[in-house]
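Hello,

Following up on my earlier ticket. Below are the four sequence lines again, exactly as submitted.
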Amino acid sequence: MNETPDRLTIGALAAQSRLSRETIRYYERVGLIRPSARSEGGYRLYAPGAVDRLRFIRTLRELGFTLNEIDRLLGIVDRDAGRCADIGDFIRDKRAAVERQIERLTRLKELLLDLEARCPHVEALFACPIIDRLADERWMADAEEGERRD
Amino acid sequence: MNETPDRLTIGALAAQSRLSRETIRYYERVGLIRPSARSEGGYRLYAPGAVDRLRFIRTLRELGFTLNEIDRLLGIVDRDAGRCADIGDFIRDKRAAVERQIERLTRLKELLLDLEARCPHVEALFACPIIDRLADERWMADAEEGERRD
DNA sequence: ATAAACCTTGGAGCATGCTCCAAAGTCAAG
DNA sequence: CTTGACTTTGGAGCATGCTCCAAGGTTTAT
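Thanks for your patience. The regenerated structure is below:
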């Protein structure tokens, strides 16, 4: 009594989600996912929806979210009103952070495109003005409030 | 004989770069930055350009670059032909990764905006279709090549 | 009924990137 | 010339997110 189209073992889930078995078990330990059942012998069995859940987690990880932040968003997925405390603030802050990151990445992309165009001539690379000055306040993280100069 | 407008101590540099002294020393240990001089008593003294260098590093860190990747880009800054080996490939790959990340973040932003509009009514949140289905192939990391299903 | 392929738990180990500390020396202001 | 703020080195410790392993049980194909 085991794997069927709607009961994946951890290995099958790993293959479909492109995460390792170990990572899936690790995510279980920290509370991000649980098998929907166990076989008689104790094997974890997952519903097919677990594949989407893990891809959601993987995507957010690749975008720089911590497992803790992902857990908060999964609180919505799980309709867990408890984990949704202050979720509004969280979402607003995250959206703002994502917007800032998009802006910065866009400027970084331009720098990289500039560098790319100068390759493969190292001399030309060295002449890149942004790199040369290492200063472009439109791109770089700035001081923001709180900075005091002596 | 010490701090002047063009000879910052580590504390002043930390304040201006918004990194801690400890972090700056750590970056020195791993080769990202070096003081341009030392005082008689052994204090690190930095040229003002160090502020930009550290802001460059901080920005790239915040965008998800590893210290190792940052070191490669600093190889260009330092006109170090040695560290520039294969830099063209590196830049191309990075530019592509940055582009992909911008795309994904843009879609994520849309999800977050949707969720934000549904706040603060938890019921409405739970009704978010993307969250509900946890599937949006336009946004989610996908399988790509290499995935085999049994 | 046996082998190959899979799974279990528990715990150790590791890479990255900091962060903190103690004991001691340096510096600038009054 | 003392005091208090600052700095030094070296090393330990820590948070995150995996990753690997051993010893053993389960499944399934033959």
